[in-house]
Amino acid sequence: MHEFILGTTASLDEHAKMMRKSPNMKHNKPYMVHVVSGESATLIWKFSEVGQFTFACLVLGHYEAGMKGIVMVEP
């Protein structure tokens, strides 16, 4: 299982802490998608401004292992 969650670095750090306490937490927000191993998923998000936006996988241990990155939105 993996996740793709958009957020700020601060919000992802905070959410990662919550996931360590409750690793089976359910997610159903429009800025999140879960992906079962070997499968694919689609997340459609309309960015309202240009800039750098952070994403991460917050499955227990994945964020800490470096599963995070930046989405660059250009004009």
Structure description:
By secondary structure, this protein is of the alpha+beta class. The protein has one helix spanning 9-21, and strands at 2-7, 32-35, 51-56, 68-73. The protein has one domain (2-73). The chain contains one helix and four strands, in the order E-H-E-E-E. The longest helix has 13 residues, at 9-21. It is globular, with a radius of gyration of 12 Å. The mean pLDDT is 91.
Summarize the structure.
This protein is α+β, with helices and mostly antiparallel strands.
Question: How are the strands of the largest sheet arranged?
Answer: 2-1-3-4
Molecular shape = globular
Range of helix content: 10-25%
What is the count of distinct domains?
1
- What sequence of helices (H) and strands (E) makes up the elements? EHEEE
- Please provide the count of β strands: 4
Sequence stretches where pLDDT stays below 50 over 5 or more residues: none
Question: What structural class do helix, strand and pairing data support?
Answer: alpha+beta
Cα(first) to Cα(last) distance is: 33 Å
Largest sheet: 4 strands, antiparallel
Radius of gyration: 12 Å
